[in-house]
């Protein structure tokens, strides 16, 4: 795996994380959204992993109990996790 490439959004994300309850990273596939978010997350829920998706949908309070910041990667596969 290639080493992490710093992105122009990195510094801005670091500044915003302390003051916002949630941040959504959007952009084309393969530009590093997940890698950027993972560097900041204490907890990662990967919704493209069937087991993790099932665990989170069975117990949505996992999000509340998880150490913050929490990354819900590929959340569009289970939009109910945002409710």
TrEMBL record:
Origin superkingdom: Bacteria
Official protein name in the record: AAA family ATPase
């Amino acid at each position: 795996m290639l080493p992490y490439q710093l992105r122009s959004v990195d510094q801005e994300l670091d500044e915003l994380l302390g003051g916002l309850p949630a941040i959504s990273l959007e952009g084309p596939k393969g530009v590093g959204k997940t890698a950027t978010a993972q560097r900041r997350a204490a907890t990662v829920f990967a919704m493209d992993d069937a087991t993790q998706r099932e665990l989170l949908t069975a117990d949505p309070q996992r999000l509340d109990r998880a150490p913050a910041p929490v990354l819900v990667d590929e959340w569009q596969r289970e939009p109910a996790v945002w409710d």
